[in-house]
Amino acid sequence: MENLTPEQKQQALFMQLVLMFHQAAWQQLGKIPNPITSKVERDLEQARMSIDLLDMLKARTQGNLSEDESRVLEQVLRELKLNFVDELDKEKKGQAEQKDEAMSSSSDN
């Protein structure tokens, strides 16, 4: 990063920040393993927080980003939001199935 202009350095750091939250959200969505534990761990509330932080970053930097920065941020947000909804649906289906199983096992008695 030493040979970069101040503007290039800021752009690189901005992209790094966006990708850091992107990676965190992927872990929190249970899409990739946690690099420390090597386990897939899902925490949708934390994923929502990471997505909300990126949304806030987008709103607060509106009009100040390069075309590339805006495109990457939009793409990351779109991808994360779609996957968040998918994981939320999976969770709701799992809860419904557990409820159905509980009801059927109690009616068997």
Short note summarizing the structure:
The chain has 109 residues and is mainly alpha-helical. It has helices at residues 6-28, 44-61, 67-108.
What labels describe this entry?
single chain; mainly alpha; Methane Monooxygenase Hydroxylase, Chain G, domain 1; 3 helices
CATH level 3 topology:
Methane Monooxygenase Hydroxylase, Chain G, domain 1
Q: What is the percentage of strand-forming residues? A: under 5%
Structural class: mainly alpha
How many helices in DSSP terms?
3
The domain count comes to 1
Shape: elongated
Q: Radius of gyration, Cα only, in angstroms?
A: 19 Å
> How far is the first residue's CA from the last residue's CA?
69 Å
Tell me how many strands there are. Answer: 0
Helicity level, as a percent range?
over 70%
Mean pLDDT: 92
Based on the structure given, which CATH architecture is correct? Up-down Bundle
The poorly predicted ranges are none
Spell the H/E element sequence. HHH
Text of the CATH class = Mainly Alpha
Q: The biggest beta sheet, please?
A: none
Q: What can you see in these coordinates?
A:
The chain is mainly alpha-helical and 109 residues long. It has a single domain, classed as Methane Monooxygenase Hydroxylase, Chain G, domain 1 (Up-down Bundle). Helix content is 76%, strand content 0%. Helix 1 runs antiparallel to helix 2, helix 1 packs parallel to helix 3 and helix 2 runs antiparallel to helix 3. The termini are far apart.
